[in-house]
Amino acid sequence: MGIESFDLGKKGEELAAQYLTRLGYQILERNFHSHQGEIDLIAFDQGTLVFVEVKSYSFRSLQSPLSAIRKSKRQSIIHAARTYLYKKKISQINCRFDVLTIYRQPNGARKIELYKNAFMAY
User: Fold this and answer.
1) pTM attached to this predicted model
2) For residues 66 and 53, is the Cβ–Cβ distance under 8 A?
3) Each residue of 42-91: pLDDT tens digit?
4) In the chain, what are the domain boundaries?
5) What end-to-end distance do the CA atoms of the chain give, in Å?
């Protein structure tokens, strides 16, 4: 990952946290790491623990943003979520996986899209 991609990702995560906070999410943690994965944001939303993957793009491609999260990436996020729950001794709580995308529109404005329950853990 180049410096530009890293910076775009970090700025995207900050914008995502601000956006989710405005929607009423309570941000609990950022960039949680396990041996097999990372979760960009962990938040609480109306009684549900939410693991959020943030995808930042310099432009909107024709491809669905959700298709950028392949099976292996979903598995690493799920592993990290299970590790988080174990380390924090959390059980008996509803959880979900959201994906938030940020990209620039042709007019230069940023577009944010939130996909709640983007995928499930099996």
Assistant:
1) 0.87
2) no
3) 999 999 999 999 988 766 555 666 777 889 999 999 999 999 999 999 99
4) 3-45+60-119
5) 30
